[in-house]
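Board notes, transcribed. Complex of a protein with coenzyme A.
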Amino acid sequence: MISRLIPNTLIYLFNYIKYKILYNNSRVSPRSFLYGVKLEKNNVICGGNYMHNCRVGSHTYISGNDGGGIVSGYHNVVIGRYCSLSNNIEIITASSHNKNFVSVFPFYSMPHSFCFDKKKSREFTKINPVRVGHDVWIGSRAVILGGVGIGSGSIVGAGSVVTKDVAPYSIVAGAPAKVIGHRFSPEIIEKLLKIEWWNWTEERIKEKMPLISGGKVEEFIKKNEK
Ligand SMILES: CC(C)(COP(=O)(O)OP(=O)(O)OC[C@H]1O[C@@H](n2cnc3c(N)ncnc32)[C@H](O)[C@@H]1OP(=O)(O)O)[C@@H](O)C(=O)NCCC(=O)NCCS
């Protein structure tokens, strides 16, 4: 018990100091593991997330994840600004097993295998990174597969498995995720995508807050159209 507690406390302390130095304008839980991660600013990363090779836009928050491990979590992902990512989301950009071989078991790649040989290892196929736009809300326990693009303003329902691109401002749900609605009409979506409020200064966003959060979208567009 004590022998387990000491290394865990040391890792916690190490992460606490590392994240304070690297991400001093964001709040990152020492219970998360971040490698090669760039946080733009004012982000919140709750505990239990495993993030590798990711870029996260300002103010985006990622809720807690009780998965951990090598393939769960966030890998090779670019996430935009002001996104709300709920708990236990998994973005699977780890490589895939080769489905055309007689066996899908990675004989040459597993260090414990009697055939382990790194030079012959061709069992895994490369998977493309995932891109998440701005102002996206992803529900709890959603799974996003590699190579998928999730458009700005869209919503991914809880427990969905996203296998294809998600258009901006659409609402998708289910496994595989299908479009169940759109947040606004095509004309309004086009205008919102031109306005790109997420690229405004914080001062300007604050000034327009009564319209951004709670106001009528038509009025917001009328007052901010380019
Ligand atoms: C995606 C979501 C926003 C849709 O809300 P909505 O637009 O009000 O949709 P509705 O509730 O009217 O449902 C529309 C249809 O989609 C289905 N649906 C909704 N959410 C679904 C989901 N997550 N998975 C599968 N189907 C779903 C409904 O059953 C309904 O089907 P029907 O037309 O056959 O009856 C919501 O259901 C959801 O999943 N929210 C995420 C909640 C969450 O994870 N919160 C975490 C804390 S932030």
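The two ends are 62 Å apart (CA to CA). Helices lie at 2-22, 186-195, 202-207, 209-212, 217-224.
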